[in-house]
Design goal:
Chain A: InterPro entries: Rab-GAP-TBC_dom, Rab-GAP_TBC_sf, TBC1D19. Chain A: This is TBC1 domain family member 19 isoform X4. Chain A: Pfam families: RabGAP-TBC (PF00566). Chain A: It comes from Zalophus californianus (California sealion). The complex is a heterodimer of chains A (about 425) and B (about 400). Chain A is mainly α and about 425 residues long. Chain A has a domain at about 35-55 and about 170-305. Chain A has helices at about 30-35, 55-65, 95-100, 125-140, 145-150, 155-165, 175-190, 190-205, 215-225, 285-300, 315-325, 330-335, 340-350, 360-375, 375-390, 390-395, 400-405, 415-425, and strands at about 1-5, 10, 25, 190, 245, 255-260. In chain A, a hairpin with a 5-residue loop joins strand 1 (about 1-5) and strand 2. In chain A, helix 4 (about 125-140) runs parallel beside helix 6 and helix 11 (about 315-325) packs across helix 12. The longest helix of chain A has 16 residues, at about 175-190. In chain B, the strands form four sheets. In chain B, strands 8, 9, 10, 11, 12, 13, 14 and 15 form an eight-stranded antiparallel beta sheet that branches. The termini of chain B are far apart. Helices cover about 25% and strands about 20% of the residues of chain B. Chain B folds into two domains: about 15-100 and about 175-385, ATP-grasp fold, B domain (D-amino Acid Aminotransferase, Chain A, domain 1, 2-Layer Sandwich); about 100-150 and about 165-170, Dna Ligase, domain 1 (2-Layer Sandwich), CATH 3.30.1490. Classes of the chains: A mainly alpha (about 425), B alpha+beta (about 400). The interface of A and B includes residues 40, 120, 159, 361 and 364 of A.
Chain lengths: ~425, ~400
């Protein structure tokens, strides 16, 4: 099974000792068992010892580092314009003045949830009015207004509804029926990819302080997700292509090609963390599923496919590195010198949209802004802001491992003040 | 100066963390505590000695005595005609119904049977009065399962059986609020520095303890303690027990989840009610507590929330476990002990038990004032903190104020 990327680099699947079929019909007895255990698949321990995740973020980073534009001649001489980071593809990224304009609502004079709702601030100053406006937006079901509103953050009680409004999810009977059909599909057929999902959940979410409670929801969502062919629709605007498999004996014959897995998305290590935070908002499985699917086809797919899109992972990496090199040159240079290229540390944060690294309430405030600005660039800005925040400690380290240690624990960070200070309160 | 510590089996000790304080440190077992306060030994604590238990804490921390005191407290309020004791049309207390229906066995056996027969399909939970960590607890749904505790003679005077065999039987809450399909309970820490006037503090960093197994009220699972009992001492022997998170959630996670899925008002109301029942339980035992000025105590409150978002007081522990099951746990308990001692022994100085027990705000650490009777009676309107988390820590009938904010409490 091979993963074809935009640049045709191949990531090989680790070989399995036993021959495992990609797709198998389930015997009836097993179907009944799975149906009865649908709500507690976490306790069902299939033998996962043969499986390793197909790839992890650091493997993906190696691919990105090797991307080159064959038409681009850099010149041999180094100048102050030379990009010293890992990404060597010359995409256009925003600088701080442009970011300030783009993220104008995060400015110092605008009220924010995540800053102006803290204990010391009387709620009359901002919070009460903001909540009132949010309720009005919801009452009028105004999606565009909701998207504008949520740039200043969403009150916890309104967030689930606001996100559904912005993502255009309304949970009609046909949506619930569609989910049930996917569930039936899971019961009736066993996919090889299912084992990858089990493994991923067990390795990540099950050990997470915030998300372990929702383990069973994650299986329910992801197993259905991998069978959902409607997800293939997003490849129309994704420069990646879904991997294909061929019916036995018909290798290469297009008429016998099927997309595998059916939704065209092979989960990588940490994939389940895209779903986990959503469990804090939605506890009804079909709604949770719809929200996740929409978040994936709008945003998350860009974090693990190669493209030149400004919200694509390549641009985010370049944006991060450029921000650091331009505005924190001493830190950037120091880290480079000790063999700790900053992107090597921040890549995993961005690929996962910081899920599993930030406290959940902070993560949700961050994802509010992703929805509000319809862009993932904020992930790169936050990554740079974190480095800026811990710059003093980072300047003192002398190895990659030590740098990793300084940045290992982000769970106490407050994202909105960090972003605000980095964009609007730092002398550039 | 001596700081007495008390350990029960399975509990931790305070010893390692008191290195900043001068003086000798004594490990006192519960038996020693009894001796210290026993009339017979004639031992008197001196002014510079304080102890971390009240002599008769069992009035609150033994399951049968707690229920007895709360029942007595409610009847007293009813007799006084207090609005707190108001009942609804079914005869249930509106504001003081926070302990599940409970009977003492074997004393109340006949009363219990009467109640049981009214709803024969209900489940009841049997708990030994004097044990901890989930030991000896089991569920029943048939009278035959507790034949042992039926009274032998029908006369009104009977010999009290030894306390070892005394049990309480409570109506089992078979509709707990489930998250991720799992049952959980809340462990909250409450520090009492004096009972009369009542001054108590609530630790902000409580946690939820989840079962490792999905909840099922089915009768076939009544014997499966991994489904029903949330004690870590039990759960950690389960197959799926995870040592990284230990099946624990912070209370702030719970709050975020409930606000996001149920709304802010009902969540605020739930937490208000939790504070209310803690204060009421302390008020219930305050009259019978030996309010020795050498004493303070940090209790572990166990609370269960049902699926209608009503909190229930399950029990109060005098020696909550101070051992840690995870890394986060260790940090939490370290801070708990640190903050507790900062309040009980201000400035790390040699204590004088005659002090007014009013620590300055700065030393509270992660504690917040839950109820201060002196302040409540002194000035009806002004209150101490109102935390961001919506804890309206006002008295009954008051409005909480802080920095110009007014919050109407849901308390009468």
């Amino acid at each position: 099974m091979m993963l074809l990327t935009h640049s045709h680099t191949l990531l090989a699947c680790p070989p399995c000792d036993a021959f495992l079929r990609l797709l198998d019909g389930r015997p009836v007895g097993e179907q009944k068992e799975l149906l009865s255990k649908w709500n507690e698949m976490g306790t069902d321990e299939p033998d996962l010892s043969l499986f390793r995740p197909v790839y992890a973020p650091k493997d993906f980073l190696e691919v990105l580092i090797n991307l080159r534009n064959p038409n681009y001649e850099n010149g041999d001489s180094l100048s102050f314009r030379t990009h010293l980071g890992l990404i060597q593809v010359p995409l256009k990224v925003k600088d701080i003045p442009e970011l300030k304009e783009f993220f104008v609502e995060l400015g110092l004079t605008t009220g924010q949830l995540g800053i102006d709702d803290s204990t010391q601030v009387p709620p009359e100053l901002f919070e009460n009015e903001h909540v009132r406006i949010g309720q009005k937006v919801l009452a009028e079901q105004d999606g565009a207004a909701a998207q504008q509103y949520i740039r200043q953050g969403s009150p916890t009680a309104l967030r689930a509804d606001l996100w559904a409004l912005i993502l255009n999810i309304s949970s009609q009977p046909e949506d619930i029926l569609y989910y049930e059909q996917l569930k039936t599909n899971v019961i009736q057929h066993d996919l090889l990819v299912d084992s990858l999902i089990y493994k991923d959940v067990k390795l990540t979410a099950s050990n997470d302080d915030y998300y372990f409670v929702f383990e069973d929801y994650l299986y329910q969502v992801l197993l259905c997700f991998s069978r959902d062919t409607s997800v293939l629709g997003h490849f129309a605007y994704n420069s990646a292509s879904p991997p294909k498999s061929y019916i036995r004996g018909k290798l290469g014959l297009e008429e016998y090609a099927v997309f595998y897995p059916p939704n065209g998305v092979i989960p990588f290590h940490g994939f389940s963390m895209y779903v986990a935070p959503l469990c804090f908002l939605y506890h009804e499985p079909s709604k949770l599923y719809q929200i996740f699917r929409e978040m994936y086809v709008r945003f998350f797919f860009r974090l693990h496919s190669i493209s030149s899109h400004p919200s694509g992972i390549v641009s985010l990496c370049l944006l991060f590195e450029t921000l650091l090199q331009t505005y924190l040159p001493q830190l950037f240079y120091h880290l480079r010198e000790i063999g700790a290229q900053p992107l090597r540390i921040s890549f995993k944060w961005m690929v996962r949209a910081f899920s599993g690294y930030l406290a959940t309430d902070q993560l949700l405030l961050l994802w509010d802004r992703i929805l509000g600005y319809n862009s993932l660039e904020i992930l790169a800005v936050l990554a740079a802001a974190v480095f800026a925040f811990r710059a003093v400690n980072l300047m003192e380290v002398t190895s990659l491992a030590a740098a990793e240690a300084v940045l290992a624990d982000l769970s106490t960070l407050k994202v909105m003040p960090l972003l605000q200070i980095f964009l609007f309160a730092t002398v550039t | 100066m001596k700081i007495g510590t008390s350990t029960e089996s399975g509990g931790g000790s305070f010893i390692g963390l008191l290195s900043t304080i001068n003086g000798t440190l004594n490990r006192m077992s519960v038996q020693t505590i009894r001796n210290v306060f026993s009339v017979e030994t004639g031992y008197r604590l001196s002014d510079d000695q304080i102890v971390n238990h009240f002599p008769n804490h069992y009035e609150l921390t033994r399951k049968d005595l707690m229920v007895k005191n709360i029942k007595r407290y409610r009847k007293e309020l009813e007799k006084e005609g207090s609005p707190l004791a108001e009942k609804d049309e079914n005869g249930k207390y509106l504001y003081l119904d926070f302990v599940p229906v409970t009977y003492m066995l074997p004393a109340d056996y006949n009363l219990f049977v009467e109640e049981f027969r009214k709803s024969p399909s209900s489940t009841w939970i049997m708990k030994p009065c004097g044990k901890a960590q989930g030991k000896g607890i089991f569920l029943i749904n048939k009278l035959s399962q507790i034949k042992k505790w039926s009274r032998d003679s029908k006369t009104s005077s009977f010999v009290t059986q030894s306390t070892k065999e005394a049990y309480v039987i409570s109506l089992y809450i078979n509709n707990p609020l489930l998250i991720g399909g799992r049952k959980f309970d809340l462990r909250l820490y409450v520090l009492v520095s004096t009972y009369r006037p009542l001054r108590c503090y609530m630790y902000k960093l409580g946690f939820c303890r989840f079962c490792t197994v999905k909840y099922s009220p089915s009768t076939s699972e009544l014997d499966n303690m991994f489904v029903h009992l949330t004690n870590v001492a039990i759960q950690k022997h389960g197959e799926d027990y995870n040592h990284i998170h230990g099946g624990k959630w912070t209370v702030s996670n719970l709050r975020l989840y409930l606000e996001s899925t149920r709304g802010k008002e009902v969540t605020g109301k739930l937490f208000d009610e939790i504070h209310w029942i803690i204060v009421q339980s302390l008020k219930a035992v305050a009259p019978v507590m030996n309010n020795d000025k050498h004493c303070f105590e940090c209790y572990g409150y166990d609370i269960i929330i049902d699926d209608k978002l009503k909190p229930w007081l399950i029990e109060v522990n005098a020696s909550p476990s101070l051992t840690s099951s995870t890394a986060n746990d260790r940090i939490l308990k370290y801070n708990l002990i640190n903050d507790t001692l900062n309040i009980a022994v201000p400035n790390g100085e040699i204590p004088d038990c005659k002090w007014n027990k009013s620590p300055p705000k700065e030393v509270l650490g992660n504690y917040e004032i839950l109820y201060d009777e002196e302040l409540a009676q002194g000035d009806g309107a002004d209150r101490e903190l109102r935390s961001r988390q919506g804890q309206s820590l006002g008295p009954k009938g008051g409005r909480s104020r802080d920095l110009g904010r007014t919050v109407l409490t849901t308390w009468k």
